[in-house]
Specification:
105 residues; elongated
Length: 105
Amino acid sequence: MLPDDIRPNNVQPRLHRTWWRAPLVASLVGLPFLVLEYRWFRSEDGIGAFGGAFYWSVGLLALSWVLPHRRSLRTPRVLAAGAGLGCVLLPMLFALALGAALSGI
């Protein structure tokens, strides 16, 4: 990228100024559940059947933070953050659904 004194005035930088919003929202909502799930899985002597969802959620949340901060990657960043949040919430929603089904509601 050229310095400001060399670059023409009509060329806008391609950086996205609010690139951090989607990863931040997904992380703020998902990290407490991720820590809770990790502690829950550790108390059960291992990750078990939900290990894939746990590792995918960590990977997708990390991917949403490390994608380049360009405007053209806004959609992949939002999709990675949303999919990571969905994978974080999957075990909890499954446990709630299973508890509701077994309680006879």
